[in-house]
Design a protein that fits this description.
260 residues; eight-stranded mixed β-sheet; four-stranded mixed β-sheet; 10 helices; 37% helix; 21% strand; globular
Amino acid sequence: MSGNRLTVIIPSRVQEDQMFFLNRSVASIRRQVLSGQFDVNIMVAVDQGDMLDPQVCSNLGIQCVESHGKSQAAALNSAIRKLDCDYVAFLEDDDRWQPDYLQVAARALAVGGFVSSNQIIYDEHGDIIRFFDFPTPSGWIMTYDTMAKVGEFNESFRYHIDNEWLGRLNLSGVTRVHLLERYAPTDVTVLTKDRDHIRQLLEVTQNRVHILRHEFPFPLVQRFSHSNSGMAQILMNEDKQRISFGEYDRLQQTFGAIPF
């Protein structure tokens, strides 16, 4: 890799545990095995009017970017417009990278311009719930050229901005890599039978995604399942569910399937 400037964008919203989440996610970036080989800049993207205290930014060594609106897509786009880097990654404020994530992802970037990872999900007690194979943004890292080619997030979507963005990525022709843990099945037939998200990923992208297994026994991205998460709130609120289903309908109409 000729350049080594990496910007990690962390969307963050005001909630009771915001500072706890941010401290933890930022610390996971700092602990990366390859962190010293990248010039890492961390941007925390917040809603309009929710700027972090300057002292907090100084203590964490981050740049806070204020959105022009009140949605995650708007916050992310405000950060994207300030990018000056070679590589771009995303990490939700309540998620974490395992120390070897960046090392493995950097190797995968030699194969394609976009890398994603499966995740291991923990509950509020620290217990493992399951592995999750959908390519959520907390496992995304890409070249700046990929980000520029696919473009910003669609602000007309509220909940499924990741699916919509992946839909445009699939149309862009960018080579994709998806990381799985060491013990994931090697037989594609078994993998697609037992792990449905992998089946959907391969079907939707017409097998254009390279599946790479790394040497570690667990996924390299940790997701935290809790009652204040965006998906949990959708499940508990009928109005939000209607918006969610409506967005799925739009995705079907636009891309012919829910993009993975």
